[in-house]
Write a structure and sequence with these properties.
With 378 residues, chain A is α/β, with parallel strands linked by helices. The first copy, chain A, has helices at 19-34, 48-52, 57-64, 81-94, 114-121, 127-132, 136-151, 155-169, 183-188, 251-264, 279-288, 297-302, 319-323, 327-342, and strands at 2-9, 40-44, 72-76, 101-107, 191-193, 196-197, 207-215, 227-236, 271-273, 356-363, 368-375.
């Protein structure tokens, strides 16, 4: 087993700094304390070539951090890169191939115009689907329609996710959008892909988050309050979306969650950070992960169950929806949020009784998913 | 410890097929035999975005191979991606996080014109050096001059590496350039970066190679002749080349080699596959790895020591120089060559007494290096 013993946060948003400066913003708080023990660096990043014209990012990051000799790898699994990097870090310390892995999740997206960003991200679609011209937001629009039709969910129940997540994000100093929104504001914002509106889709953000992963045996030598990765699962699904039977259940998410729960022995964590690239996705994921019955996730939102003060808080961080979604950083930011919550260090957005939390980081449109259950007790 | 139990080879060269077809060419021979036991896929690739306009390559590859649900990650460490993927695969099976990892190394480079390819690859240089406009071949040119001046190596001794490696490559059915060259032909080819000539620099190639990595405990259930990864080391150096004291010793290569030798207990393997992106690099690497004294590697080439029939064969495969260098595939191709040699399955290019072999895969201009000692006996 492995543990997270430190987390560093950069501010998500439109940033003027270059990608190395952004990466360093979250990595330096960790390296300042633990430089001498770090022996491996993973950089979770997907699009440094496409967005920033940079390759070999892992090596540039270690150089920028003055850790020249350290082995490093860039880990890419599109939007699920952070989850994949956490999985790899856990494996590296469990195998003894590394003693202490600095994982830096980073993306700088704002160098390109929105249209270009959407086109680049859509390059993960299979060729036959690319020909039909969908983008990931347009798929989320389709899913929203399917979900409402299949389960009779009112349109407002989806928008309510954005209201909740923006309220949470306003309490998160690292979040991109720190602005409380009313239901009317969400429903009145511009239609991006029918029926989804501007505030229901994660913004294009720059940013980084870093964590330090060590074997559970040594965790207490780093901190009094390690947070253990008690279970972690990774699963995938066909890249060809036309092969999917339904959009309203996501098999990769379901399977990754099942593995994480089985390994950890925690069937019901106390809270979760999910991959709400669009509002409807948070709801569908909360069902695929078994937190709510299929078709009933929207009711949990409507009833306030998923609020910070609710029975099962989801995205207390603000989620991708308000915190932002710098692609390579997202999964690490989720793990870092769970880490802070379990340590009771989440400030105004602290959830009660946060003993075990789940993060679930998704790639593509459920093309891949990594779920981890993290907890205070081994 | 881990073992390689199967290898699949694609033809290196200019290919008309798309990157998924190229990846499948080497992966299918393995999946046809071992599909049911494979539970993780690593795709070693650096530039699918820049060269092919594709992201999420790992997911597209598993889908193409009809292994939809398998977790997968794209591993990038520029030219050292294959080495990094081998390191990750070893860690995954040693930690028990995976039981059997298919590693697919693939790159399709020929979609872009040579000038564009060189520009893209040079995007791994630091900003201040990029501004000065060097490319990786131009750095190799500088190194060649330094090496000749420092150690009095005759110009022909460098070209002799190309003669040897093309002679070897002509015996390798997977090699890009299967053509025996005379010293006159090498020395008479076009100057690319003074003093290095066309046949001294690896060509731009498409291609893939795949291997299957399992824990040593289960290796014999896959094959009668597993090849064990007895030691594997990874190390790096500053991305900023102006920080290097010298080019004629490569610290990342030296350190990675030391780790691999120490772990394996094999100080003197029987042969090696090195990263001869340019002829002079093979010589310098053979010294940094301790196979020859500093400044004497060129003599070993001149004396035939590194020939297939020599005392210490280097790049019996033809090396990057003649086999080609499809970036993400190279490290895996090196491991696969060592695998074949140790199993005695290298045909006309078989080296004698191949009990232990080393592969050394380098990234950038020594920015990173992975060295592994592989052997027939645990």
């Amino acid at each position: 087993m492995a543990a997270v013993v430190s987390a560093g946060f950069g501010k998500f948003g439109k940033r003027k700094e270059n990608i190395l400066e952004i990466a360093a913003e979250s990595a330096l708080p960790i390296t300042r304390k633990f430089r001498d023990s770090i022996d491996f660096v993973l950089v979770s990043n997907c699009y440094s070539g496409e967005f920033n014209g940079i390759s070999g990012l892992n090596n540039l990051v270690t150089t920028y951090l003055s850790m020249d000799a350290l082995p490093s790898i860039r880990i890419d699994n599109t939007s699920g890169s952070g989850g994949a990097a956490l999985f790899t870090a856990v494996s590296l310390v469990e195998s003894g191939r590394a003693k202490s892995v600095l994982v830096v999740g980073v993306e700088k997206m704002s160098e390109k115009p929105t249209k270009e960003v959407t086109r680049i991200i859509s390059s993960l679609l299979g060729e036959r689907e690319k020909a039909a011209g969908p983008s990931l937001p347009s798929l989320a629009g389709l899913l929203a329609k399917d979900y409402m039709r299949e389960f009779g969910a009112p349109r407002e129940s989806l928008a309510q996710v954005a209201v909740k997540n923006h309220r949470n994000g306003a309490l998160n100093p690292h979040a991109h959008i720190q602005k409380v929104l009313t239901l009317e504001q969400v429903m009145g914002s511009a239609v991006i892909v029918d029926p989804l509106r501007l505030f229901e889709i994660s913004p294009i953000s720059d940013g980084s988050t870093s964590i330090l992963v060590v074997p559970d045996e040594t965790a207490e030598s780093f901190t009094d309050k390690p947070v253990y990765v008690k279970g972690i699962g990774m699963s995938s699904e066909a890249a060809y979306l036309t092969d999917r039977k339904t959009f309203t259940d996501i098999p990769s998410v379901r399977r990754a969650g099942e593995i994480a729960k089985r390994q950890s022995g925690v069937d019901r964590p106390d809270f979760a950070e999910l991959h709400d690239m669009a509002t409807v996705l948070e709801i569908v994921q909360s069902e695929s992960l078994g937190f709510f019955k299929r078709g009933e996730g929207w009711r949990a939102v409507a009833d306030g169950v998923t609020e910070i003060g609710g029975e099962f808080p989801i995205n207390a961080s603000g989620g991708l929806n308000s915190k932002g979604h710098p692609i390579g950083a997202t999964g690490i930011a989720q793990a870092a949020e769970v880490f802070q919550q379990i340590r009771g260090e989440a400030g105004q957005r602290q959830v009660k009784h946060a003993e075990n939390g789940m993060m679930m980081n998704m790639a593509g449109f459920g093309n891949s998913a990594v779920a981890a259950v993290m907890g205070a007790v081994r």
